[in-house]
Every structure is written in structure tokens, then in C-alpha cells.
Design a protein that fits this description.
mainly alpha; globular
Length: 200
């Protein structure tokens, strides 16, 4: 494994994080509505679970999904229903005034874990990226380095999002457009959940 492999992986990782998926949307919404601490906490949960999926891909969990399609289908269905549940709550609460109660960090961390835990496509994406970028037969130490790198990059990005989105100027803009921003985010999450549910 060379440094160029890590650089290529990080570029792919940053592109994946920035895509309008459930992890990014929840990170932004939590930071804006519940404050910096909760935003960082949800990012820690998201990053930890995403890195664990990469670890699972590195150490062969995708083989289990291929060997036992029912396991993948079960996890995918649960994940889709969870995304739909979050989308429904976000849509229903779009007209509600922004709560002044800051979400406890432990709750935000748990939500981050659940969002990425319920997304089995993460492990398949990670497996595909790993196969394309990294050479075969890497050592345990090299695999661990990739895993640690993934975790650090995720945590840095989500911490930056929490700091940026929890500023007063951003919060004011969010409050002005809360109804439509929440409903757009809910629609995206709902569409992702439905796609995950009906995709074969």
C-alpha cells in the first residue's frame, strides 16, 4: 500500500460524505437545531459507524451478505423503515418552532450510530471502493491504518460541519427557511428510504 492509495480513498470518502445522504442531512440538521455539542456528537456516531462498516468490508463482512442474501435484505429493510421514520418526524415537525432545548450529546451520538448502522449499502460501497483503490492481500497493520484514517477523516469533517452550521448567522438563515429546509430534507430522506426499500 502506498500514500497515493490513501489519498485516492480520502477523495472518494469526502465525495461520499458530501453527497446528500441521510448522514450529511442529519449532521447539518442536528448542528443547526441542537447546537455545536450535539452536532459534534452526532458526527462522532456517524463517523464511528461508517468506519466500522469499512472495517467490516476490509475483513470480509460483504462475503456474509453475498452468502446469505436474506441477512442483507433484513438489514436493508430495517434501515429503510428507520429512514422513513426519521423523514416522517422531520416533515411533521417542519412547522413547529425550533426548540430551545439542546439535544443531549449522548442521544445525538446514538442517533448517528443508528443512521449509519441501518445503511447496509455503506459496507457494499466501502467494499467496492476498497477493491478498486487498494492492492489485494494487505497486512493487518495496513488494514488498521485504512480503518483509522477513515475514522479520523469522518470526525474532522463532521466536527467542521458542526462548527460551521451552529454559528448564529447560519442559525438565523435556517430559522427563516426552516419549513422548506426541513421538508426538503425530509423528502430526500424519505426518497432514500423508499429507494432502499424497493431496490433489489
Amino acid at each position: 500500500m502506498e500514500l497515493t492509495h490513501i489519498i485516492a480513498f480520502n477523495i472518494a470518502l469526502l465525495a461520499a460524505i458530501a453527497s446528500p445522504g441521510p448522514a450529511f442531512l442529519v449532521a447539518v440538521k442536528t448542528a443547526v437545531s441542537s447546537g455545536r455539542r450535539a452536532g459534534i456528537a452526532v458526527g462522532m456516531g456517524l463517523g464511528l459507524m461508517a468506519a466500522l462498516w469499512t472495517g467490516a468490508a476490509l475483513f470480509g463482512l460483504e462475503v456474509v451478505f453475498v452468502a446469505f442474501p436474506w441477512a442483507y435484505t433484513a438489514v436493508k429493510t430495517i434501515g429503510a423503515l428507520y429512514l422513513l421514520y426519521i423523514a416522517f418526524g422531520m416533515w411533521r415537525g417542519a412547522r413547529d418552532p425550533l426548540s430551545t432545548d439542546v439535544k443531549p450529546a449522548r442521544h445525538a451520538f446514538r442517533q448517528g450510530i443508528l443512521i449509519n448502522l441501518m445503511n447496509p449499502k455503506s459496507v457494499l460501497f466501502a467494499a467496492a471502493v476498497l477493491v478498486v483503490i487498494f492492492p489485494p492481500n494487505m497486512t493487518f497493520g495496513e488494514n488498521f491504518l485504512v480503518l483509522a484514517n477513515h475514522l479520523v477523516v469522518e470526525w474532522i469533517v463532521y466536527t467542521a460541519i458542526a462548527f460551521g452550521m451552529s454559528t448564529e448567522a447560519v442559525s438565523r438563515r435556517y430559522l427563516r427557511g426552516k419549513l422548506w429546509l426541513d421538508r426538503i430534507a425530509a423528502s430526500v430522506l424519505g426518497a432514500l428510504g423508499l429507494r432502499l426499500l424497493i431496490d433489489r
